[in-house]
Amino acid sequence: MTRHQKRLAVPNSWPVERKTETFTVKAGAGPHGKAGVPLVVLLRDVLGYVDSRKEARYALNTDSVLVNGDAVSDEQRPIGMFDILTFPVRGEYFRVFPDEGGRLALTPVDEDAAGSRLGKVTNKTVVADGTVQLTLHDGTNVRVDADTAYDTRDSIVIDNESNDVVAHFEYEEGALVTAVAGQHAGRIGEVESIDVTLGSGANSVVVDDDADGYETVEEYVVVIDENFVDDADAPDADGATDDDEPTDVDAEEPDDDEPTDVDAEEPGDDEEVTADE
After folding, report:
1. Cα–Cα distances in angstroms (integers) from residue 276 to residues 4, 60, 238, in the given order
2. Can you give the residue ranges of every domain in the chain?
């Protein structure tokens, strides 16, 4: 297995420029699988808070960055959909949310919203003690009472401090959903119908939104709640919010905090680091 990551080969969800350099940082082991973006990419290429991996390591070693409420020290730690990034010194909070085309972007949220995170239930298993274990989209396992009505494709909200389930949203007609992949990624609407496909084909979902609506495969939609992603934070059909633009690699930052452009990277920074990994 190679320890290098070429920019041209990164997943479409990664918010990086692909033709400016040959290599970028490879994501380490952790949640979200291959779709996870290394934390240093968000800190350096998206937010512009650091200029190099060395600066990122220093920031992480001072507990300046929290992911889902926990301090992290690995700059390669994968970050993915619905993760919460907290910068205590700055008093800033971001939710990772899919932008147009499935590209991950950072949406500013308030402190209360940053106290919990959304997870899509991808698997449900009865364990030895009779309780039910739910596996979420990022690989997190949560145990709940056996008599609690959870099902795959439902969504739950996990408190970042206690890891308890604080909300449950069922996957059904009329549910509020967002597409997280495909050409309709980032669009929010209500499920109009769920069309079950016989055989091995994927089920399809028709979603009614403020535009003309859209149809996508069932795997691409995640149930959300209007109180979890309210109108002020919810991206529209173009992936933008009404008050705050999601922070992407192409998004402009305020003049007093210009992000470090990918073209401004120190020559050979990524090539040298990946060779030493």
Report:
1. 10, 19, 39
2. 5-113+244-255, 115-169
> Please, which residues bridge with residue 188 across strands?
178
pLDDT in tens, 216-273: 999 989 999 886 555 444 444 344 444 444 554 444 443 444 443 434 344 444 443 3
**Spatial CA neighbour of 124 closest among 93, 148, 91:** 148
Amino acid at residue number 156: I
Q: How far apart are CA 179 and CA 54, in angstroms?
A: 36
Residue 104 near residue 138, CB atoms below 8 Å: no
Cβ(59)–Cβ(89) below 8 Å: no
Strand partners, 206: 193, 215
pLDDT digits (tens, 9 = 90+) for 62-120: 988 999 999 999 898 999 889 999 999 999 999 988 877 777 888 899 999 899 999 99
Span 5-113+244-255: which CATH code? 3.10.290.10
Terminal-to-terminal C-alpha distance of the chain: 13
Structure tokens at 33: 């699988």
CATH-assigned architecture of domain 115-169: Beta Barrel (2.40)
